[in-house]
Amino acid sequence: MTSSILILVLFLLHSSIATALVSHNHDSKAISDLKESIVKGLGFNADDFKVTGLDPREAEVGHSVQYEFDVEIDKKVIPFKLLEDVNRWDYVDLPIFRVHHDDDNDVEPGSEKYGLVQKSEKLPVLAPFQLAGPMELWIQDADHIRLSLPHDVEAGVLKKVILADGAVVTVKGARSVSLRHPLDLPLPLNQSQNGFASGLLALADQLRHTSRTQGAPLLSLRIVGPTSLASPSSTSSNNRLKLKRLAPGLVELSSPANTKAVEALSTVDIQEEAPTLLTPTQFATLWPLASLNGSNANLLGFEKLLSSVLGPKAHKKGSFKLLKADVSAQTFVKIGFQAEKKIKEGDGISLEGFPEWRTKPETVRMHFEVLAKVDGDKVVPERVMQVNPVVVEDTVAPNVLTGNVTMSKTPVVHHPPNPFLL
């Protein structure tokens, strides 16, 4: 009887281990697509290049802010993509990495069912920032947005908000901000002076002046997922925003002090949030971002980059077009993997320094690290870097070092006596 129970326990244990191994070896669709994208991105043939060791349980997850711009100069479109450094990497459970079986109750080992994961991923958001009119905001994916002027106001479901000249709002909980329509930007672009991005500041002032003089707002932005629009806490009681309902889902916010609200705006109490390019300042600001420091290092770097792209045109009268401007909070994944590649003549792989007595390998193993962006249910690789693995020293048998001589033929060497040895 005891032996029968023991056999049954061993059988169940073997079955559970086999199931775990099958689940572990079966990749999720996100991992499979990531492998395929890596092979294509590196320019290798799938038959000669095999990705191994891409374990999602070893993936580190972090949040960052991504800036994307498309600039048209002389009918030539030049894309820019900037990424802030990730401040913190952590091991977080991403649902897209889970393997879905036919039975919904089956979960991949290492998931929440096995008690190994204690965190789950949340959508990242931008740090609070301020926008100043005149401009219009199109609200997307925000059915329960909070409107505080400074007291909460019931405005229903907001789809569009018009900021009149002088009106300033603090936006919290937004996942992305993007330009809805292209903008024609005038030249020349002046050089930075006194530590300020004077070229971009002058450009912003021209756009703001044009928006004031024309009938409709020149600038139109799309904001995805904001949780609240509020008056800046530093705004005095005389400068509180007024709300005017124009249509269902459409309101206008105006300030009695008009343009004085922007000039009098000082540092607001959002400094404790994660620092990004959209952070508060008590120096000159870049319209329409009332919280953007005019001497911000990232802004100065972008102006320098733009000047280098424009070349001599940056100092001549003319114009260029901003086709796309998108700032978004993104989730990034960093994971290491190995790759085996078949060695072929002319593929650039050198075996110089390889011992002659060893058999030449047919494949070479390389180590990589991929930085990928989580986009919905996909993982899009942004950068693949080859890394150097830990070097393992070769061990050689003594008979190889001595020329394969037997110990009987090795001469005996007598060391001088040492009185301190027993």
UniProtKB/TrEMBL annotation:
GO term, biological process aspect, one: pollen wall assembly
InterPro entries assigned to the protein according to its UniProt record, in alphabetical order: TUNICAMYCIN_INDUCED_1
Task: Kindly state one GO CC term assigned in the UniProt record.
Answer: endoplasmic reticulum
Q: Which of UniProt's keywords are assigned here?
A: Signal
The leader peptide range reads 1-20
The molecule here is called Tunicamycin induced 1
Question: Which species does the entry assign this protein to?
Answer: Lupinus angustifolius (Narrow-leaved blue lupine)
